[in-house]
Amino acid sequence: MSVTASQYIKNSKRGEVFTGVFHYTRPVRSKHDKAVELYGLLSVSSEVEIPGQNIAKFAWDGLIDGFEYSKVDSTNEALKIALTEATLRIKQLIANDKNIADHGVDVNISVFVSIGNSLYVGLLGESDIYIYKNGKIVDISEMLGKKNAKTAALVVSESDVLFSSTKGFLKKEMSTLIGFK
Prior knowledge:
- By secondary structure, this protein is an alpha+beta fold.
- It is built from 5 helices and 8 strands.
- Helices cover 34% and strands 33% of the residues.
- The strands form 2 sheets. The chain has a 5-stranded antiparallel β-sheet with strand order 1-2-3-4-7, covered by helices on one side. Strands 6-5-8 form a 3-stranded antiparallel β-sheet.
C-alpha cells in the first residue's frame, strides 16, 4: 500500500491557531519487523496567542512515545495508549503554563498507522476523516463518534483514498471535492 501525505495549511498570523502534519517511521529492527508509519494531523487553537507549533509537537511526541513503548500486541490497543499519552502530555503542558491554563487550548488529533496493507485510525477531539472505497465515501469520524470509539482498523486497497481535515472543512467542501458543485 503506498501512502502519500499532502499538507495544504495556512496558519493564523496572530498565533491563535496552528495546524500541522506530522510523520514518523519506526526503524525496522529485524527481518521479522514490519514497516510501521504514523501520520498525524494536529490542530491547536485558543482565544489568545499560543505556541501552537510547540504544543502540537509536544502532543505528537507523546503520541509516538505512547505507541512505541506500549507493551501490547494489538496495534489498535497501542494506538489507544498513544492517544492517552498525548492527552497526558497536553494536560501536563496546561498545568505548567499559566497563560494556557487561564485561557484554555483546543487540541484535535487525527492519526493514521500504516502497517503493510493494514491501516488504523485514531481520533482525539474533532476532525473530519473520510475514506473513498468502492465508489462510496464513508465518514469515519462520524462512525467513531456513534460508537464512542477513539480508534478503528480499516481494510484498505490500493484504490482507496483517505481524507483528513480539521473539523468541518471536508464536510463543508465534500460536494466540491467529488465534483457535484
